[in-house]
Amino acid sequence: MTSPTPNLPNESHLLEDYNFVVLGLPGVGKSTFVTQFTTTHHPAQTSPPPSTLPHQQIQLSVDNQPCQISLSEAGPSSSSVALRKEYISASQAAILMYSITSKESFEKIREIWGEVREVKEEMGMWEPFQMGLVGNKMDLEGERVVGVHEGMGVAETLGCAFWEAEAETGRNTKELVEELVRKVRTYRDNERIRYEQMKEEAEKAKKEKVKNDRRKKMMPWKRLFS
Ligand SMILES: Nc1nc2c(ncn2[C@@H]2O[C@H](COP(=O)(O)OP(=O)(O)OP(=O)(O)O)[C@@H](O)[C@H]2O)c(=O)[nH]1
Ligand SMILES: [Mg+2]
């Protein structure tokens, strides 16, 4: 008889959750990126957070901190405007993808960036770091019509990080996902600190008010000694 499996502690609460959406014109390699990435890394062990949106989930350790990352694709051919908005609002970061072999897909990037910005602004959560620009199909050097410097230039004006990648083989894809995790993590940490500071200041103001109210109620001669 085999001994019963010991109850292992549930470590799901130690995982940081990240939702990333991949946007770009048809054919740039969004599905290839999501599929390649999620089949190469560990599939998530825990149940996904409730969502009506289809996504693929994996676990990855970024700087020794375990993360659960959901990736979803929302291209114009696979989703309506309303659905795309839903994907964007559910994500903490967007991967804006073009193909280095398609000028049209590159020129579309500003519009997609604007779409993400609009959704995030409506939610009061706009931060430019929430986007990473990816020039995919970097292996197709002979068919290149978008230069590396063109990609870098646009990324700089839009305030996003930039990579060229090869979704088919996974070249640079881990790096870009990790970098977005770090950016979102830094943002969350700063927000946490800001929240703690605001809480502390509110507590201080409350205490000050109680003290002042008490002083006002005192006899005038007593105030001199309080
Ligand atoms: N050479 C090369 N081909 C790629 C790369 N990534 C994707 N492809 C090819 O590009 C084609 C389109 O890729 P998809 O992943 O289906 O593109 P998509 O952006 O999901 O397209 P839609 O779902 O129609 O919006 C496929 O034939 C892929 O094999 C890459 O890095 N290098
Ligand atoms: Mg696709």
From TrEMBL:
Residues 200-226 are annotated as: Disordered. GO terms for molecular function: GTP binding; GTPase activity. It holds the Pfam family Ras. SUPFAM superfamilies: P-loop containing nucleoside triphosphate hydrolases (SSF52540). GO terms for cellular component: membrane. Residues 207-226 have a biased composition (Basic residues). Keywords: GTP-binding, Nucleotide-binding. The keyword GTP-binding applies. The keyword Transmembrane helix does not apply. It comes from the Eukaryota. InterPro entries: P-loop_NTPase, Small_GTPase, Small_GTPase_Ras-type. GO terms for biological process: signal transduction. This is Uncharacterized protein. It comes from Amorphotheca resinae ATCC 22711.
